[in-house]
Amino acid sequence: MSWQAYTDNLVATGKIDKAALYSRAGDSLWAQSSSFELQSSEITGIAQGFDDASNLQAHGLHVQGQKYFLLRADDRSIYGKFEAEGVVAVRTKQAILVAHYPAGVVAGEATTVVEKVADYLISVGY
After folding, report:
1. What is the pLDDT along the chain (126 residues), one digit of tens a residue?
2. CATH code: domain of residue 17
């Protein structure tokens, strides 16, 4: 399966409207949907936030120029919210999944979808 299929499958769930897949270091875009490409500083901030969330806690999570309130940040998952929409980022062994969910989607449903794809990637060595 191509990397693009993972982002397409996330969007196909109806819980995610945009998704991207980056290398674990955040220095390479592997796949994206709907022109969902982050600025280099945004993906770098997310990649670094898995190991040290202090910058995200102090300045928020930025995705496509929008600042999201940081809800969670640990060595696996980063969640952010802006009004009724949100962002989920999950790090696997070799990749970072970043997904956006629109207003009207329950945050827990969106995070579950992204976390399950990450679990699968981890199970196959990625």
Report:
1. 689 999 999 999 999 999 999 999 999 999 999 889 899 999 999 999 999 999 999 999 999 999 999 999 999 999 999 999 999 999 999 999 999 999 999 999 999 999 999 999 999 999
2. 3.30.450.30
- Nearest Cα residue to 64 out of 93, 32, 104: 32
pLDDT tens digit string along 35-48? Answer: 898 999 999 999 99
Q: Could you tell me where the beta strands, DSSP code E, fall in 3-94?
A: 18-23, 29-32, 61-63, 66-73, 77-82, 85-91
pLDDT of the residue at 67: 97
As for how many domains the chain has, the answer is 1
Amino acid identity, residue 83? E
Total H helices, total E strands in the chain: 4, 7
> What are the CB-based long-range contacts (under 8 Å, 24+) for 34-42?
36/7, 36/64, 36/98, 36/100, 38/63, 38/64, 38/98, 39/64, 39/65
